[in-house]
Amino acid sequence: MDLSTVKTEDLVHEVQRRLECLNKPEKRLVLIGPPGSGKGTQSPMIKNENCLCHLATGDLLRAAVAAKTPLGLEAKKAMDAGALVTDEIVVGLIEENIKKPECRTGFVLDGFPRTVVQAQKLDEMLSSKGQSIDRVLNFAVADQALVDRITGRWVHPASGRSYHEKFAPPRVAGVDDVTGEPLVKRKDDNAETLKSRLSAFHAQTAPVIDHYKQRVVNIKADKPQKEVAEQVRKALE
Length: 237
Hints:
Layout (H helix, E strand, L loop, with lengths): L7 H14 L5 E6 L6 H12 L2 E4 H11 L2 H11 L6 H11 L8 E5 L5 H12 L7 E6 L2 H9 L1 E3 L6 E3 L26 H21 L4 E5 L4 H11 L2
Parallel strand pairs: 1-3, 1-4, 2-3, 4-7
Antiparallel strand pairs: 5-6
């Protein structure tokens, strides 16, 4: 990277940030929560304030496949055959990524583990490095509240801006505030699909919460974003 193209104030800010990160305690976190619970909204704040790297397993898989790494090739072979990517591959990808400099002080793991078996394999891998999961943040929201959140959501496809019929409506119904272009509903943003996903989540992931019960902090994720963020900060003190 040519640093001569970077503004001086941006460089100074980055140096200050890195110096502050040197004094941050290590944290290895797992975020658990059903679709629409707000994990994605809180992840950037958790990552930035605690100097952690964000590991979303879907992103890790796509990056490994695109880079044609050994694990990426294994994953692509499974996907091309219509099979599920094995837990061993996913844990291997996590192991590879936590070696990176940005993960020096820990990570925020989002989307994994989804089952107790996955949690056990993750624990074994971390234990081999003398590490473990420190906190599990459980973003708890009543199913009906999630149905209300998701089914009322409208999206501007080009920008990703999202609106909600009740909680954050556009200035003019059905169109984006910035461009005036039509808003759309995602095909999965319907009550039937969501209830199916919630049923699978509760069946698979509730036991994971029990597996980590000594390290779980329940976050009341049905509150406004600022209140949720404050709960998260207190949980990580």
